[in-house]
Amino acid sequence: MTVVDTPAPPESEDPAGWILEQAISPRRRFFNGVASAWMIGSLLFALVPVVIIVVYVVSKGAGIVNFGFLTKDIPIVTQNPGGGIGPAIVGTLIITGMAALMAIPLGVLGAVYLNEYGGQNRVAKVIRFMADVMTGVPSIVMGLFIATIWVSSGMHFGYSGLAGSLALAALMLPIVIRSSEEMLKLVPDDLRQASDALGARRWRTVTSVVIPAALPGIVSGAMLAVARAAGETAPLLFTIGVTTGINANPFHGTNTTLSQEIWFNAQTPFAAAKDRAWGAALTLILIVFVFTVVARVVSNRFSTVRR
Amino acid sequence: MTALAPPGAPGAGEPIQGTAGGAGVDRTFRGIAVAAGLLVLAILALIAYTTTTKAWPAFTHQGISFVTGRNWNPNTNSFGALDFIYGTLLTATIALVLAVPASLGIALFITELAPRRLSNAVTYVVDMLAAIPSVVYGYWALAVLVSPATNFYSNIANSLGRVPGLSSLFGGSARGASFMTAGVILAIMIVPIITSLSREALITVSQDDKNGAIAMGATRIEMLRVAVFPRVRSGLIAAAMLGLGRAMGETIAVALIIGSSPKITSHLFRSGDTMASVIVHQFPEAVDIHRAALIGLGVVLFAITIAVNVAARAIANRSVLVGNAR
Amino acid sequence: MFGLGSCLVHFDASEYPPFVLNLDTDIGNPNKTFTLGKGTTLIATLRSSDSRPRRFRRTVVALAVPALLLAACGSSSKSSGSSSGSANFQAGQGNAGVAQAVSATDGAIGYVDYSDAKAAGLKFASVKNSSGTFIVPSIESAAASVASAKIETNLTYSPLNSSGATAYPITSPTWIIVYAKQTSATQGRALKSFLHYALTDGQALAAGANFAKLPDSLAQKAVTQLDKLEVPGGGSDSATLNGSGSTFQKAFDQVVIEAFTKANPGITVNYAGGGSGKGKTDLQTKTVDFAGTDSLVKPADLSKYQGGAILYFPLVAAPITMSFNLSGVDKLQLSAATIAKIFSGQITKWNDAAIAADNPGVTLPSTGITVVHRADASGTTSNFTKYLNLAAPEVWKLGFGDTVNWPS
């Protein structure tokens, strides 16, 4: 064992910094600096686009968003100014909400099965494998899938908000399963063993100990899936049709969403339509962001792990 | 001994039964979990089955040249998708190469470097990135990035592009609507999910392990390399795989800025095409076998995702430290 | 376990024979020599062996070798750009995307439908029709094109390259197709009423939406064809009609729907657009009540329509403009052969002899041509390429259809 003899730091210098300089080679110090630079640089990589894009959307959309815009019906003739996007807001909330209600509980329960009960058995391996595969599927394929088996099927369900929800749920499900499973994996076994030692049954352990410990992570993953679903257009193009008036019934009749209206309106050369598109974009970003923030705050209240 | 045992408790040596109702609830809950698992399996299998059967006519018509052929011409019923496969893989690779270090850096910043308030603020900023719809990313990039990018890429092509090793990447003609732009936008779009999962994984590493490394004299990055990364490897890889899945499957944003000019080239600044964007561009007018071929592209993406995930799991399983993960 | 991995890397314009490299035996083999030219196709083969570390190493080598060769090969010889003389092609999303790209680039030309081109404020070229006159795209010239086209008994027709003296040769038709036999009394009545409106009062709205209305004789025939629509008796007055299909006619459909629903408050009509292919497929599966389409149903597909026979109702027509952006030039004349050469990349500069021949007396700059085409499949592309195929078959070799393999 070599003894490193470090002399005492001189009076004038900060002792900690001086020891750092003496004890750590320049090469190591350089890499340490690189690491800090990397972290801060990454921050800029995320921060700069957000600010630029949000400022851009706000500058283009803020002028048109007002109470009337948020509540009035969509004009029948796209190029006409006036009207609003009320039906699209209702559509987004209902369709994305239903998709979340279908995909999140099922996904979390599926992840619970995979991690707590299934482990490495055959069925669990197959489910994990298929969920992995589905995460890479283009959103449009999910829309085509639902269009084939639901909308245009022999039962002639036709366009509806529900069909759109099904497509979005199909999109969200693999993401929720995979991320929830990872979060459940991260809960230390100590907690489970302690709960077992206290005599709790498996279900009690899972519901009272494991899920609350993993809750912020699960909610995080679920919110990302919801944000993606709310912003998707392609799966809806083949499943929900269009409407210019509010349709609060997701089971019958065509519907529309903010993402779809952005897509339709941005593709025209008419100024009124483009304004509407950016107004809808701003509205959608705000709705999703507020929803995410609320979800995080609520989940932090119910989680057991201090962050 | 008997004074301590509560009434009705089992004596020494007998297994703890718990309440009689607990067993039933346990079975029920287990049943629910298993049912959920099976339902998920059924849904995923149904998706795979339906899309494959819808795509089958195109596969039988085209044979293996569906994935090896380069001529995609619906007017002559020829469907060779190699150019699109290349475009998907290239843009997804660019996106991962940019996003994974950035997301990891942000996650580390949140967990290591930043004080509590700042890390919460950064989390919300990343959430904001996730809240932006994909169609907005596409139209914003189209309106704001494409024209300046053309000049920017031209400058790089004329400078770095003349260096012998790099000319194959940066040379050639420069377009704003190109693989590179699509890759950059995809990278921005997948940062939230990779950051979020990485952050969750990093938080679970116990401070004791980190302190041990610091006590041994490690600098910050050495501490990360020794005490943190080995434990969270599986979580990080899962995060990257989810990000990759999104990158390969992103439809509308890429369709608007990829340039729609299918080709296989190493030049990053040229226009190309991807499978997902071809589907969204051609599906509205497609009938019969053309439709089947487009759905077939989706099926090919299944296969690619399988291959990538198998590779990723192989890498993940090579890790030595298991730690608290199962 | 036996596995064969192969890595295929192909660079542009390969005229060199492929070179096969067997990584198991060729690496380090002094007897194996190879030459690589720019654009050589490299095929590397690898057989997976027993041990894992060896396989991993081989995989790394298998990927590194092509990567190094890629770097060493250098850039491919073909670098397109207006400076080097080969044509510059760009894609735009939708008619608006093409219009936007054209107005943003000096020296650009693209095909844009009339209403979108007007809204974007673009300049259009006059096109020489088959009678030899250069015609400006307008509602009148489009109407003349429809009037001089031959109408079939089922009311289908093609106004492309029509021979009328004042006809604009690149005019796009569009129809609404429905089932002859309606199964629902409510829907059927509403549909008949809607179609009747579109073919009578609705025609007056066409000009305002930048479409050419049908010639009176054709409109009359269409109204007469309405009698063939069998609707069961009864049914209520309030109904919702759903349609999808051609986006080309969407603007006209919307003004008709607005006026019609104002006059018939109990009826709601939703037209989703989404492309002629989508409309046809939706109608096949009876997901919609009517479909808009710019092209005819292929005879082989007629059996797919689950509701039986279909009827074509012509709706409106509109020109497909040759929109351009060229500083210093306000009026441009183009013949079919010139257009075909431009859009297949054979002409790359504005002062080319062929363009000059079409525009005597006009000074054309030497700017490079940027051709803007559609990124998405579209009936507009289909009609435009069909026109080129009809009017300049000896020059136009790229075929026709809603999507075409444009040069890059």
- CATH homologous superfamily descriptor of the domain at 82-282 in chain B: MetI-like
Number of strands of chain A: 0
Strand-residue proportion of chain B: under 5%
How is the CATH topology of the domain at 82-282 in chain B named?
MetI-like fold
Question: What is the overall pLDDT average of chain A?
Answer: 87
Q: What structural class is derived from the secondary structure elements of chain A?
A: mainly alpha
**How large is the radius of gyration of chain A?**
26 Å
CATH uppermost class of chain A? Mainly Alpha
In DSSP terms (H or I, runs of 4 or more residues), the helix count of chain B works out at 12
The percent range for helix content of chain B is over 70%
Q: Strand order across the biggest sheet of chain B?
A: 1-2
Assembly annotation: heterotrimer
CATH architectural name of the domain at 82-282 in chain B: Orthogonal Bundle
Count, helices of chain A: 12
Key terms for this structure?
heterotrimer; A: 307 residues; mainly alpha; MetI-like fold; 12 helices; 71% helix; 0% strand; globular; C: 408 residues; alpha/beta; ten-stranded mixed beta sheet; three-stranded mixed beta sheet; 11 helices; 16 strands; 30% helix; 21% strand; disordered N terminus
Describe, in plain words, how this protein is organized in 3D:
The complex is a heterotrimer of chains A (307), B (326) and C (408). With 307 residues, chain A is mostly helical. Chain A contains twelve helices and no strands. Chain A has one domain (86-306): MetI-like fold (Orthogonal Bundle), CATH 1.10.3720.10. In chain A, helix 4 runs parallel beside helix 7. In chain A, 55% of the residues are buried. Chain B has a domain at 82-282: MetI-like fold (Orthogonal Bundle). Residues 320-326 of chain B have low confidence and may be disordered. By secondary structure, chain C is α/β, with parallel strands linked by helices. Chain C contains eleven helices and 16 strands. Chain C has helices at residues 52-73, 94-104, 114-119, 139-147, 185-199, 216-225, 250-263, 276-284, 336-343, 353-358, 379-391, and strands spanning 4-9, 19-22, 42-47, 88-92, 108-113, 123-124, 126-128, 134-135, 171-179, 212-213, 239-245, 267-274, 290-293, 310-325, 333-334, 370-374. In chain C, strands 4, 5, 6, 9, 10, 11, 12, 13, 14 and 16 form a ten-stranded mixed beta sheet that branches. The model of chain C is unreliable at 1-18, 36-50 and 71-84 (pLDDT under 50). Chains in contact: A-B, A-C, B-C. Chain A binds chain C through residues 76-79, 151-153, 156, 158-159, 237-238, 241-245, 253-254, 264, 267-270, and chain C through 93-97, 99-100, 116, 119-120, 240, 242, 244, 250-251, 254-255, 257-258, 261, 268, 270-274, 278, 281-282, 285-288.
